[in-house]
Amino acid sequence: MSLKFAANISMMFQEIPTLEQRYEAAKNAKFKYVELTFPYAEDIDKLKAAREKAEVEQVLINAYPGDLNTGDLGLAARPERIQDFKDGLELSIQYANALNCKRMHILAGRVFKDISFEERNEYKKTYMDNLKYAADRLSQEGILALIEAVNNKISVPDYFLSCPHEGLEIVKKLNHPNLKFQFDIFHVQIMNGNLTKNIQEFLPYIGHVQLAQVPDRGEPDKNGEINFPYIFQVLKNVGYQGYLGLEYKPRGKTEDGLIWMKQLHEIDL
Q1: pTM (global) more than 0.85
Q2: How far apart are the first and last CA of the chain?
Q3: 8 A C-beta contact, residue 62 and residue 107
Q4: Does residue 247 carry a catalytic annotation?
Q5: Pick from 106, 140, 151, 154: which is nearest to 126 by CA?
Q6: What span, in angstroms and rounded, lies between the C-alpha atoms of 55 and 31?
Q7: For labelling, which of 25, 217, 239, 256 has a CA lying 20 to 30 Å from the CA of 247?
Q8: Are 101 and 141 a contacting pair, CB within 8 Å?
C-alpha cells in the first residue's frame, strides 16, 4: 500500500507568487493531490481553471475563516457569529464544488478573551450545534466535514479546540456519519505526543491526516522530534488509506526540500 501525499499549496511553493501557479508547480513536482488553506481571496473561476489544467485532485480546503485581518480563524464556536458561520459555509461550498473537493475542515475559531466556565460551555454548545449543521449541509453536497485540534502551545494560543482527545470526544458524541477528525501529526505531537497509540485510537474516526516536523513545522525529515519513516510505517500498518496533507513550511526552496520523499523510496515505504 502506497501513501498518498498531498501538497499544501498554501504553505508549500512560497517562492511562486499565486495559488494558480502553484497548482502547476505541484504537478511538476510529481504530486497528484493538493490541499490548501484559504482560497477565498482568489477568483473562483481562475482557481478552478488552474486546478483542471494541472490535472491534480483537490483533497481538502478549510472552511471560510471569517476576517483573517481582524484575527478571525474560524467561526464555528463563536456564539455571536452564528449567521456569519452559516453564510461563510455557503461560500466555502461554492469553492469546494468548483475545485471538486470532497473534504472541508470546519475551524472552531479563537477565544478572544478570558471566559468563564459557563461561557466556555456556551461556546462548546455553539460549536457542536454548528458542526451538526455543517455536517448535515455538507452531506447534501457530498463533502465530508472535518474538525481539527490546533495546538495552543506554539501555533494559536487562543484557539478554542486545542486538545485532540476533546475533538475526538466531540466527534463521538455527535456521532454524525458525515463528521470525522482531522489528525494533524504536528499538533498532536505538541499537545499529546504518544503518536503510535493515538493513531491507533483515533483511526476509526480519522477523515484526513496532515503532518509537519516539530518544532519548526518544516519538512518531515530528520531535523526534529518526529521519526517520520516510523510514523509512515505505523500508518501503513494500521491500514490508513486516506491522504497525508503536507501542511509544512519549507525551510528553503520547496523542491529542494522534497529530498525526504526520495529517501522514503530508498527505505521501501
Answers
A1: yes
A2: 9
A3: yes
A4: yes
A5: 106
A6: 10
A7: 239
A8: no
The one-letter amino acid code at 241 reads Q
Predicted local distance difference test score (pLDDT) of residue 269: 40
Query: Nearest-CA neighbor of 205 among 169, 229, 232?
Result: 169
31-52 pLDDT, tens per residue?
999 999 999 999 999 999 999 9
Write down the pLDDT at residue 117. 84
Q: Is the pLDDT of residue 213 over 60?
A: yes
Secondary structure letter of residue 108 according to DSSP = B
Q: Per residue in 84-133, pLDDT tens? A: 999 999 999 999 999 999 999 999 999 877 888 888 899 999 999 999 99
Cell of 143: 463533502
Q: For 139-159, what is each residue's pLDDT tens digit?
A: 999 999 999 999 999 999 999
CB 179 within 8 A of CB 214: no
Secondary structure letter of residue 116 according to DSSP? -
Torsion angle (degrees, nearest 10) of CA 246, 247, 252, 254: 40
From the candidates 20, 35, 57, 148, give the one annotated as an active-site residue: 148
d(CA 9, CA 22): 6
Count of H helices and E strands in the chain? 10, 8
Annotation says 148 is catalytic: yes
